[in-house]
Design goal:
The protein has 381 residues and is an alpha/beta fold. Helix content is 45%, strand content 16%.
């Protein structure tokens, strides 16, 4: 399927440096594990993104080594996984080219896994431990039923799915079948932790990973990171197309662009006699991940006529155009309820923003409307 250069570990480092491959596949043996770390570090430093796939890895893997279990008759799945990784590489190359344009957009210099959100399904005893283990590395959205999982997939940006215990093989089979038939979710990293899937599915990033929660996280993390990196690249490309007015991490406006558009929206609403409301979601300033998750939810679910931005004080502001106070309260509550379903950290801390809403009065200006919003927040707290 691809031009291939076959080397052993003694030649691998030289081959990566000289040949400049588009991807690296490593077949691991018991004696090769300690040599993989140095090779993985070399590969991680390359630009554009250089995928590293570790086949039949029974050892702890570097964070950029994507695992692949080479079971019987699944070579097509390996090719599909490799092609998906090469698409991420091509997207990274495009972003690097576009960053040379005279725009004020930059690729975030942060580990994409820190910004990732994983959907955890389960009812068994391993669920709390998996939730904590994944929550220490990324955001976690829990689901006790397939119906709840489907709702999260439709309402949020999910970077991976972890199937825990508590579901019958028939239920798991139906869920995986639906995912394989939907182009939106087919390439998602999916980890089954309680036994092999019922049959083969058209899901190139489906892996069966059992064992302790730390082992599951370690093997699932590279696939989730690659997916989160792809999403990060897509948002950066949108920011470039928007001439730097969008924040690549949140998908919302930058704070400067928001201030400008907010002033114009208030002036236009006052001139035309229209309605306008602004909502503030206040998160713990020390919890950057909570603000980021809330901003991404707003970016995905808000209407095309609305706009928002993450603020330096740890909050997210959203402007609802042509929306009265009552309707704004209803929309704000719905968005907040989605935000509260995300947990992270050792104690499974949930995102619980303080929500305040203010609507435009005939005597308002942009400055006075925001001042009233912050006064209402202090009164609410």
């Amino acid at each position: 399927m691809f031009p291939l250069i076959d080397v052993d570990f003694d030649q691998a480092s030289h081959a990566v440096a000289q040949v400049r491959p588009a991807a690296a596949l490593v077949s691991l043996s018991g004696s090769a594990g300690h040599r993989l770390e140095a090779l993985a570090k070399q590969i991680a430093a390359r630009k554009p993104y250089l995928p590293l796939i570790a086949v039949d890895a029974a050892i702890s893997l570097p964070e950029n080594a994507i695992p692949f279990s080479f079971e019987k008759a699944n070579s097509d799945r390996l090719v599909a996984r490799l092609r998906g990784a090469l698409r991420v590489r091509a997207l990274h190359a495009m972003v690097l080219r576009r960053l040379g344009e005279p725009v004020q957009a930059q690729l975030p210099e942060i580990d994409p896994a820190r910004d990732a959100t994983v959907l955890l399904l389960g009812r068994g005893g391993s669920y709390p431990e998996l939730s904590v283990a994944f929550g220490e590395r990324m955001g976690v959205v829990g689901a006790l039923s397939i119906e709840a999982a489907a709702s999260h997939l439709n309402n949020r940006d999910i970077d991976g799915i972890v199937l825990g215990e508590g579901f019958t093989p028939r239920v798991v089979d139906a869920f995986l079948t639906v995912l394989s038939e939907d182009a939106r979710f087919r390439s998602l990293p999916i980890v089954a932790t309680s036994g092999a899937p019922v049959r083969a599915y058209d899901l190139p990033n489906l892996e069966t990973i059992s064992g302790e929660p730390a082992h599951v996280v370690g093997h699932a993390l590279p696939l989730i990171r690659q997916r989160a990196f792809e999403a990060q690249l897509s948002r950066t490309l949108s920011a470039i197309d928007a001439k730097g007015l969008l924040d690549p991490r949140t998908g919302l406006l930058t704070a400067v662009a928001f201030a400008r558009d907010f002033t114009r929206a208030v002036e236009q609403s006052l001139h035309d006699g229209g309605t306008l409301s602004v909502v503030r979601y206040a998160f713990d300033p020390a919890d950057e991940r909570a603000q980021l998750g809330g901003a991404r939810i707003v970016s995905r679910l808000m209407r095309q006529t609305d706009f928002g931005a993450a603020q330096p004080d740890g909050s997210v502001l959203v402007v609802f155009s042509d929306t009265d106070l009552r309707s704004s309260h209803a929309i704000a509550r719905r968005l907040a309820s989605v935000m509260r379903q995300t947990s992270h950290g050792r104690r499974g801390t949930r995102c619980d923003p303080l929500v305040t809403v203010a609507t435009l009065l005939p005597t308002d200006s942009a400055k006075s409307l925001l001042a009233r919003l912050y006064e209402d927040r202090r009164a609410a707290s």
